[in-house]
């Protein structure tokens, strides 16, 4: 008898779950139906800033697979179909408009919800999110409407990854860019000293950063369009506003249906992405709670990498192959022009919250052999457990070639290595790629030297 | 009472040993004397191709520290001083010219000896090594003597790292480049399929590769200058010849003095770099035998990274702080124009020799998100233990951004991770840096999918 899997939400987690379940079960065994409220599935929200910037030419480039491509793999996608309720007892999803989709298995992959603090005027036209492809299209259109020779000003609220990528994108399009932060520094998941490096670099790129200022109001012009913000420090005029205030879990559907919500505010699941009280229901991606590999505690980290892997775990289990999600370190990278930023594991705030006795070490080195053309400064910061020297977290800020070095440290943390072990490890060297001792090893040595001494 | 440390050989291993011993012992406690046969210490042989190419402008850029700088740290360097014998019983090094240097501790760091097969004509003028800075200067001078508009041809014997880097350098200087290999493919420490990728790329760069041809003779002109080579297949004219035939250990001083030589042909040392029968003598760097982290067997791998670390271990022990060298994976990277190459751990030949039952998986991916400008192809090959899935070795060949990914795999191998663990790991993602699943993870998944299935 054919069972039916219904997936709510057709982006990274949902489509990974669907695709993985399909790999393991034929259409005769398992019917797969995806409900997606927008008109597109399997798209790269992370690519929106580069599309706005013009570095990626076409919206369709950001779409990995279309509904037609999924249909060819016997996965039915209903776009424009918003799930409004889940009847857990009946095993049915109710869509807006009245359609009902019965399920044997359900994957909730409703994604993230961009933070929108209760600021008057935030809903005015001219204020843009960066969540869906439509947001990208709207920002592009708004930029296109600006006079070529008149004022071209963009204001970004928030200094996380998306905020900084959008700041670069607006500058690429010839806008004068202002970044307004409630926090003292951009990149809240970097430590203060590393965030300061980023902040200084933004200034050197010609961006204006107003930090440590809560926005009290979005100002609107006579037509009701956003034209500036008022903070508790000053008033800043602009021609468009982009929100990069972070992302929480989108759990309204799950919560209203009675699925358990965890202490992080995301859907509570076990390590197979399964809802504990409803073993036929799974949640994955930005809407789901997960756990941190270093602390062992529950966590909510909205990243596409995790969404893909969690979806795949859910799809495996549904397909009949046991699978467990291995946890997160929150490894993330970005760049703003030539400045590259990476982080993984615990920053000092997180280490402190988790109750670790920790130490920190920061080193400065070069991305290539010092004498090699294109050698740029790189700073590497390690957070290690005091005494044991176990790596807890790492941060890098530097020139081209810096960011992806975080993967080495993420792998070392993943494996439970100490700084001492990392210091002895055999990383590659050639003048175009690193100094004889890679900066990552230099950082590990700085810790181990003192641990030994 | 002041003891004396004598170091024979003033490059990576020797100067690391000297510097580390000095960090731990004052000049009143330990006198440090370095004997170096050339006129320069602490230089980057790895930088010579880039100096020849003109990418690095100045010879002095390749010198990390001068004898005067070492003198300021109370390390006495005698340049132009060739050690000719060690009297182990008397505890004395005899230098050419008659000077004797008594020691309490001795570090033998005589480095590597470039392979020079017994080919007639190999000693002719116009045939150049790439070992010392003087070699680089000689090649530069030879290139400068070529007519600007006449024939400008360079021939490289051997296709290892140095050979390919020199091929690029000669091409950079406007020479028509031919590479002649005794092996069927360049990069002997890559598997055949990965070496083929490199070979194809060299051809696409306009280099001529004659593979699988033993050189029988270096041809000389009427002035006795090298003007071509004759192989068992053909004869190739050229204006200069560069040798990139690999590197063995330079052990003549050690062997003649009675220090034990290991089965690899390099000086036998324990894991503290100490000669077993002469605990007051240490050897480090390209002249010393080491051990492979994966096989646990003795190995000889001539790389500057190991030389630095082994020297540091010897210096620590001499300085009174216990230290052990943690072994090698033979991690190495290079690039030829846009083509980047990396390898670590065991290739299939090595896995077979070591007696592993292994499997291999190769994947193709892109260095960045597929839609992102500058995304280039990357191939990742993993060698894993059959059954356990333990990572034994890895190879990458691809466009810019490929090479340093080998460090992630080197770290995973270092930590004893399986492909399955690697597949779950939390590596970074952003469109300018990688697809959602980093190619390294895609490769690990390819293994684990089959291991699971």
**CATH fold title of the largest domain in chain A:** FAD/NAD(P)-binding domain
Q: State the shape of chain A.
A: globular
Mean pLDDT of chain A: 96
Work out the number of β strands of chain A.
26
Helical residue percent band of chain A: 25-40%
Q: What's the CATH H-level homologous superfamily of the largest domain in chain A?
A: FAD/NAD(P)-binding domain
Query: Number of folding domains of chain A?
Result: 3
Task: Label the structural class of chain A.
Answer: alpha/beta
What CATH first level of the largest domain in chain A would be assigned? Answer: Alpha Beta
Please give the most extensive interface between any two protein chains, plus how many residues each contributes. A-B, 67 and 67 residues
Strand proportion of chain A: 25-35%
The biggest beta sheet of chain A is recorded as:
6 strands, mixed
Parts with pLDDT < 50 across at least 5 consecutive residues of chain A: none
CATH architecture level-2 label of the largest domain in chain A: 3-Layer(bba) Sandwich
**Widest beta sheet: strand line-up of chain A:** 3-2-1-7-19-18
Assembly level: homodimer
Question: How many alpha or pi helices of chain A?
Answer: 12
Q: Which value, in Å, is the CA radius of gyration of chain A?
A: 23 Å
In whole angstroms, the N-to-C terminal distance of chain A is 68 Å
Family (chains A, B): Belongs to the class-III pyridine nucleotide-disulfide oxidoreductase family.
InterPro entries (chains A, B): FAD-bd_OxRdtase, FAD/NAD-bd_sf, FAD/NAD-binding_dom, FAD/NAD-linked_Rdtase_dimer_sf, Pyr_nucl-diS_OxRdtase_dimer
Cofactor (chains A, B): FAD
Keywords (chains A, B): FAD, Flavoprotein, Oxidoreductase, Redox-active center
């Amino acid at each position: 008898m054919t069972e039916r899997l219904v997936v709510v939400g057709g982006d990274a987690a949902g489509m990974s779950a669907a695709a993985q379940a399909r790999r393991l079960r034929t259409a005769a065994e398992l019917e797969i139906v995806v409900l997606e409220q927008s008109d597109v599935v399997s798209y790269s929200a992370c690519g929106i800033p580069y599309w706005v910037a013009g570095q990626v030419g076409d919206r369709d480039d950001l779409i990995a697979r279309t509904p037609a491509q999924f249909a060819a793999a016997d996965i039915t996608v209903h776009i424009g179909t918003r799930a409004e309720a889940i009847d857990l007892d009946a095993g049915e999803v109710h869509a807006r408009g009245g359609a009902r989709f019965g399920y044997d298995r359900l994957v909730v992959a409703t994604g993230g919800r961009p933070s929108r603090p209760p600021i008057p005027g935030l809903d005015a036209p001219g204020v843009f999110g960066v969540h869906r492809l439509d947001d990208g299209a709207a920002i592009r259109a708004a930029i296109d409407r600006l006079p070529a020779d008149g004022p071209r000003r963009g204001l970004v609220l928030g200094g996380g990854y998306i905020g900084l990528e959008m700041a670069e994108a607006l500058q690429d399009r010839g806008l004068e860019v202002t970044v307004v932060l409630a926090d003292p520094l951009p990149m809240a998941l970097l430590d203060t000293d590393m965030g300061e490096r980023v902040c200084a670099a933004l200034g050197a790129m010609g961006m204006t950063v107003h930090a440590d200022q809560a926005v009290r109001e979005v100002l609107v012009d006579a037509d009701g369009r956003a034209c500036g913000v008022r903070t508790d420090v000053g008033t800043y005029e602009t021609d468009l506003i982009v929100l990069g205030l972070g992302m929480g879990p989108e759990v309204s559907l799950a919560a209203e249906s009675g699925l358990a919500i965890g202490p992080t505010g995301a859907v509570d699941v076990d390590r197979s992405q399964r809802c504990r009280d409803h073993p036929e229901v799974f949640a994955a991606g930005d809407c789901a709670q997960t756990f941190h590999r270093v602390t062992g505690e529950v966590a909510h980290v909205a990243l596409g990498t995790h969404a893909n892997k969690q979806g795949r775990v859910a799809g495996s289990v549904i397909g009949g192959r046991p699978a467990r999600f291995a946890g997160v370190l929150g490894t993330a990278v970005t760049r703003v022009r030539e400045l590259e930023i990476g982080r993984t594991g615990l920053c000092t705030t997180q280490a402190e919250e988790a109750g670790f006795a920790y130490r920190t070490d920061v080193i400065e080195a070069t991305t290539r052999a010092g004498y090699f053309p294109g050698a740029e400064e790189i700073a590497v910061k390690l957070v290690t457990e005091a005494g044991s020297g176990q790596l807890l977290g790492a941060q890098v800020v530097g020139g081209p070639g810096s960011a992806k070095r975080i993967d080495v440290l993420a792998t070392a943390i993943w494996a439970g290595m100490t700084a001492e072990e990392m210091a002895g490890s055999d990383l590659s060297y050639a003048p175009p790629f690193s100094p004889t001792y890679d900066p990552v090893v230099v950082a590990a040595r700085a810790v181990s030297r003192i641990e030994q001494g």
